[in-house]
Structure formats: structure tokens, C-alpha cells
Amino acid sequence: MKLFSYIVTHDTGFSPNPFWGYCTLADCKPAIRRTADVGDWIVGLSPKAEGNKIVYAMEVKEILTFYEYYHDKRFSKKIPDYTLNTTIYETGDNIYRPLKAGGFQQLQSFHSNGLNERHSTKNHDLGGKNVLVSDNYYYFGSEAIPLLPDLKELIVARGHKNHFSQDVIQMFLDYISKETKKIKASPSKWPENDLSWEIGK
Fold first, then answer.
1. Comparing C-alpha atoms, which of 22, 2, 43 is closest to residue 144?
2. pLDDT one-digit tens code per residue, 78-113
3. Other Cβ atoms closer than 10 A to 77
4. Residues paired with 98 in a beta bridge
5. Which of 93, 130, 134, 201 is the most buried (most CB within 10 A)?
6. Are the beta carbons of 2 and 178 closer than 8 angstroms?
């Protein structure tokens, strides 16, 4: 079992997307999505200016292709819907619609306007090949919790780390297991006084 750590630069509820009973990592961090296995853990930390706190942690329970992810009814609410004019429905990360002729269309999202392929993140995202799914996760968002002093080696400046001793991994799991699972608070970059995130708890 491996533990991956990285910095969640923009905690908007998009990547990771912790809503509707599953924490999913479908966009950004392609190197993690390509190499993580079922049973591995991923921890996202806040930037240094925000204290390098734990924003979320998830155990990888499933690994799906983008095609499987888009067509799985469990994740239909993670397809962004801007007609509802509600933040929770706009933060969905299920943004790659399979095309009959092959390939994918990038939908409008928090990540991209879905219109300008030349300046889109499509190739970067699809380069990760996989969507990571978890129903065993902790999402703290705007109420991120501090790292233990003995876990400071999880902090990374850029990219990610995944070479930790089993002692460090076990210490992390023991620490995180004392918290309540699923969603604790809104994303830290959520619109002020917008409680729509609670719909997806």
C-alpha cells in the first residue's frame, strides 16, 4: 500500500469532488491517477500559506476509465449542470463526455469553459487515464485539520510524494481514523454563505 501526498491549490469542491457519497479524483494530478492502485491512500494538503493542513484523505476503492465514469449512474450528479444555477451542481468533475466517433468532449466546469479546446486542460486530464473513486474518505475543506509534527514529511512543494515508510503511513491512518468520515465542511474556496454543498453530503 502506498500513500500519495500533494497540495490542493484550489479547494473548490471540483478536484477532489467529495459530493454525493463518493470522493472522486478525475481531473488534475495525472501522475497520481496513472499510478495509484486500489487500496492506496491519497492525502491533499492546503498550501503553505494556509498551514499545510489536511484538506482531505481518500482510500482508492475503485479505478475507472473516463468512459466508465461518465456512464456510471452513481456519478450522474457529478456531471456539471449549469441550468440549475446552484454551486453544488456546477462543481462536478465528470466533465468528459465520450463521443461516438471516439475521444471525449470536455464539458463546461469549474476547470474549463468547455469551449476553447486550444486552451483547455483536456490533454492534461485525460493523460491521467484513470478516475479514482472512494467511499472511504475524509473531507475537511474549510475546516482542514493540522498535520501531526511527526507527519511533516508529507508536505510537498510541487508535484507529489509517495515514498513513505510503513510506519509513517500507519501513523497517518491512525491519526485520520479518529475523524468523522465523509464531508465535514464546505470547500475553502466556496462562495460565502452558500450552503448548497450540504445537499451533496
1. 43
2. 999 999 999 999 999 999 999 998 899 999 888 766
3. 19
4. 104
5. 93
6. no
In the numeric block, the cell 467529495 is attached to 18
- Beta bridge partners, 97, equal 105
Q: How confident is the model at residue 117 (pLDDT cuts 50, 70, 90)?
A: low
For the record, the C-alpha cell of 182 comes out as 465523509
Q: Are strands 104-106 and 23-25 parallel, antiparallel or unpaired?
A: unpaired
Nearest Cα neighbor of 33 from 167, 134, 137 is 134
Residue among 90, 43, 40 at smallest CA distance from 63: 40
Q: How would residue 189 be classed by pLDDT, with cut points 50, 70 and 90? A: very high
* Alpha helix segments (H runs only) across the chain: 30-35, 66-71, 87-90, 122-126, 166-176
Model-wide pTM > 0.85: yes
Q: From 177, 179, 171, 172, select the one nearest 42 (Cα to Cα).
A: 172
